[in-house]
Amino acid sequence: MLPSFFGLRHMACLLAASAMMPAGAQTQQDQPANNYPTTARVEYVGECMAKNGGAQAYLYKCACAIDQIAARLPYDDYVESSTFARYATLGGEGGAIFRDPEYGKNAARRYRGIQEEALHACGIAPATRAAR
User: Residues of the signal sequence (predicted)?
Assistant: First the structure.
């Protein structure tokens, strides 16, 4: 038997409150584990679309790609590895910090692999390269 503080009035309030939640509302537990900030997602999609001619169809394909990447790579790892990948070809002494360390090479390679798989899964042809 339930304790007395779980009276009918209390149960009615709980039921009313739960009924007010939108049907599609997500709880904290339903959120993706590697949820990226909106600004990071928008930046990726914008760069991806630009590199693919800016066609509206790429809005959906590029959004799909960043979702695929986010599902496999925690945000902090994404920032680090995509930075290494982006600046790996930077010349001069300034670029050495991105080019030379073995850790950076591995991070860039990992990111590029995950990104290539995401682009393929989302219908972006290998001939067109998205945001790196």
Answer: 1-25
Cα dihedral 16, 17, 22, 26, rounded to 10, equals -140
DSSP letter for each residue of the chain: ---TTS-HHHHHHHHHHHHHS-TT---GGGS-TTPPPHHHHHHHHHHHHHHTTT-THHHHHHHHHHHHHHHHS-HHHHHHHHHHHHHTT--HHHHHHHHS-HHHHHHHHHHHHHHHHHHHHTT--TTS----
Report in angstroms the alpha-carbon separations of 113 from 31, 74, 103.
Answer: 25, 15, 15
In this predicted structure, the answer to whether residue 90 has a pLDDT above a threshold of 60 is yes
Whole-model pTM: value is: 0.69
